[in-house]
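Notes from the 1:1 (GR / supervisor)

We went over the backlog. Supervisor wanted to see one worked example end to end before approving the batch request, so GR pasted a single chain during the call. The sequence is below; no edits were made to it. Supervisor asked that the structure be written out right there so they could see what the output format looks like.
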Amino acid sequence: MCGIVGYIGKADAPTVLINGLRRLEYRGYDSAGLAVLDDERVVVSKAPGKVAALNERARSEWPAERFSRASLGIAHTRWATHGPPTEVNAHPHLDHSGEVALVHNGIIENYRALRARLEGKGHHFYSETDTEVLAHLIGECDKGNLFQAVCDALHQVEGTFGIAVLSAREPGRIITARRGSPIVIGVGDGETIIASDASAILAHTQRVIYLDDNDIAIVTADSVDIRDLNNIPVTREIAELGLDESAAEKGGYDHFMLKEIHEQPECLANAIRGRLDFNIGSSVLAGMGTSPRELAELGRVVLVGCGTSLHAGLVGEYAFEDLADLHSEVQQAAEFRYRNPILGSRDLVVAISQSGETADTLAAVREAKQKGAFVMSLCNVVGSTIARETGRGVYLHAGPEISVASTKAFTCQVAVLLMMALKLGRGRRFSREEGIRFAQEINSIPMLVERVIRQDAHIAGVAASYVANEHAFFIGRGPMYPVALEGALKLKEISYIHAEGYHAAELKHGPIALLTEGTPVIAIACDIPGKDKTLGNIEECKARGARILGLVTEGDHEAAECMDDFISIPRCHPLVATIPAVVALQLFSYHVARLRGCEIDQPRNLAKSVTVE
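Structure output shown during the call:
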């Protein structure tokens, strides 16, 4: 969940490293640090807080000429695991000699045992981190060959890592390795960039190499030599990123989150484009890599994910059952491999992850493959670990998502799941005419979302009435139940209001005891089966003094009259309606957080890519 950048080349390394960290700050922003080689010695600067604090600290500590002459360095922005976000716990960490520096993403599970052993040999530790233990272990193993020292140290490590290491004794190279935590290497012209995410590389090159688990690379300005931990050479292809650097900029918006909400009509069009066949009433998803016979023989779909991706899976569950007459279930990826799931060759496991690096979801993928299931992925990041390990799946084409709170990736996940359900449905129970009608509904999604976004000013006005509240409830039925869960998650993530999502029927089975005068209840009361029951639940809440904000279908005056405030959603198929409904709640949450003065793009304690279990 941390950001790693390494650089060796012609430019001044500190500037490249700090600019790279700025691009990765969404991966962690508790503290930051960098280490460069200067006159064959390791020079380190660290600061608690965000990258801006590190930039200020480094420039005050180092003469300007040091920035211009250092051409090799490593840097890190941290999401704290072991020890609080203090300067002493910030990366990089040094070995006992002070000549080896290390940045690390992941968790060393046996660090206590390693630390005790090293302390017995006279090592002294300053931080509470597992990373400092790894730095000392590498130093202990170093007999004049940094590459071999890293290999020897990593053979003793249990856990996950993405690392970059430099040594004052070997000034022309950086060693980088990965296991369970991403590392991508950018191949430039006389320069090489190492990062935990390609966004830090975009300013330098489009040519990248993705390391696989247990790869270790010797990186120089002009070469990348990749081996495994037994020092056996391996080959990794150079890929083209195909990303626009401007996609990682705010583009005039106050926040990345607002930009990404407004990008959704275009992103959804990209996710859908070329994937609908109106002649046969189906979808074209070649990445699924399955024949019609294989799809027809499936007995069950299991969707796995965490957080927002889990909520997308819940919408998919309704779609697969309603459209394809196929038993479906959603499982929390973090529990999947620990519960010994029952899987077989007729089960399709769909792993949903925006980043394609989510550690829990990756573990679920490996467990499902071990048990012989069909496994495919829905990812937004080309070349990500989950996409590569599944070998089949569908990319979202949502573009870079910088804000920690997911918006466009979620709606694209739902759109792709609807297309998958259509494809399965046409092979099982859907007629051609039904397929054509639903394909047309999917094709209308960008326009539907655009109509919601046009209500931005109205939604901002509604949000102003809910800024002072510290608790909120979201309720919905059917496919709108996961919308309620996602709406509550967005509000709590960025505004720090305690928000909970419930099935509308569940509210009176306990949570209604928490309603007091003026407590907000956000009710998704669109015109879907079960709407009348939801309206009844709303009356139960109003009778206890709750203030009701409703999401209602355009023209549904009966439902609107039940609400204190309402936001209209275009009329469409109930499954399709989940997407514009979620967009309305994204805008509502954004404006509540903005009016409360919250740090919207980088909410406290969170990070974008969850690469630790």
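Supervisor's comment: The mean pLDDT is 91.
Batch request approved.
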